[in-house]
Write a structure and sequence with these properties.
about 300 residues; alpha+beta; Rossmann fold; Elongation Factor Tu (Ef-tu), domain 3; 2 domains; eight-stranded antiparallel beta sheet
Length: about 300
């Protein structure tokens, strides 16, 4: 019977070879995973289309056809129809939470087919905004600043040459957003235009008066019916209220008394409260109820919060 004796050095060489083979087999999957993770550009998509028809899905199909690896994040598709102010407020709220290089596709376009220019705007935060020159960029321009603006004129970046007169979200804005997110040079989109000449939408700021602070209910918070205002926590705190204090809030012609509380469960079920929301703004809510429906509030609405001495 024949026997084989392996020297220690031979065993070591065999082990090294096996390990090398395993390492080589693993390298492609590791590299692919790293490339996939690095190559996931983000488009944040906002419209006033709603979700009852196929408009949003069609736009996404256009983007995936051009940039298959893109990641599309839905900001909302329930912007108040035609409301530039509402759309501007949503953009202002979410952009600080996304990194440089993010492409924001914002289609609130009541003047579709008209003379207002389609644009790509780059902010000083190095984020890109694909939208109409109708004031939608106002809040971003005021807070973040504008680095450069280009008008969309390159037909090669659009969905063919037969552009619809009523669906520019599909034919112009979605393909442009996909080309940008896919890494193409944004200077190809069209000529640079002066950033200081962009259309603006009026964004009113809360104002202090002799009797308190006057602001605006700018929108309703989802299905819960909470009222979101444009009054910053810092401004509200200047009035001097403390948690537990009762406040007689004026909403247009209504006067509604409620406590200033930290969170919803600080009041009984179906009772109202004023609180500082996660955005750092004054908000009104009803614990496990719907404040907007109960009090028949449809934004925009003027809100007045009196100084403590006014009601005491």
């Amino acid at each position: 019977m024949m026997t084989f004796t392996f020297r220690p050095s031979t065993r070591l060489h065999c082990l090294i070879r096996i390990l090398l083979i395993l390492a080589l087999l693993c390298l492609p999957s590791v590299a692919a995973r790293e490339n996939r993770d690095k190559a996931r550009p983000t488009i944040v998509f906002m419209t006033d289309y709603g979700t009852v028809d196929a408009s949003v899905t069609i736009c996404k199909g256009v983007m995936y056809s051009i940039a298959p690896d893109v990641r599309i994040v839905d900001l909302t598709h329930d912007v108040e129809p035609y409301s530039i102010r509402n759309g501007a407020d949503f953009l202002h709220e979410v952009t600080p939470f996304f990194p440089a290089g993010t492409v924001f596709l914002a289609v609130i376009d009541p003047g579709v087919g008209g003379p207002q220019r389609p644009l790509v705007v780059r902010s000083r935060r190095k984020q890109y905004f694909v939208l109409r020159d109708n004031g939608l960029i106002t809040a971003i321009a005021d807070r973040d600043g504008i680095e450069a603006v280009r008008e969309i004129t390159n037909v090669a970046w659009m969905l063919g040459r037969n552009i619809s007169s009523t669906f520019h979200g599909r034919d112009i804005f979605s393909p442009v957003a996909a080309h940008l997110a896919g890494g193409e040079d944004w200077v190809q989109v069209g000529p640079e235009v002066p950033g200081q000449n962009l259309q603006r939408v009026e964004i009113t700021s809360p104002k202090f008066g002799p009797h308190g602070i006057n602001g605006h209910v700018v929108r309703i918070d989802g299905p819960f019916g909470n009222l979101i205002t444009d009054i910053a926590a810092e401004d509200f705190q200047k009035l001097g209220y403390e948690h537990g204090d009762q406040i007689a809030v004026h909403l247009n012609a209504q006067k509604i008394s409620m406590p200033f509380m930290r969170t919803f469960s600080d009041v009984p079920k179906n009772q109202p409260l004023l609180y500082i929301d996660s955005r750092g703004r004054v908000a009104l809510a009803m614990n496990r109820g719907n404040f907007a429906e109960t009090h028949h509030i449809i934004p925009p609405v003027i809100i007045t919060i009196p100084r403590p001495k006014t009601d005491q």
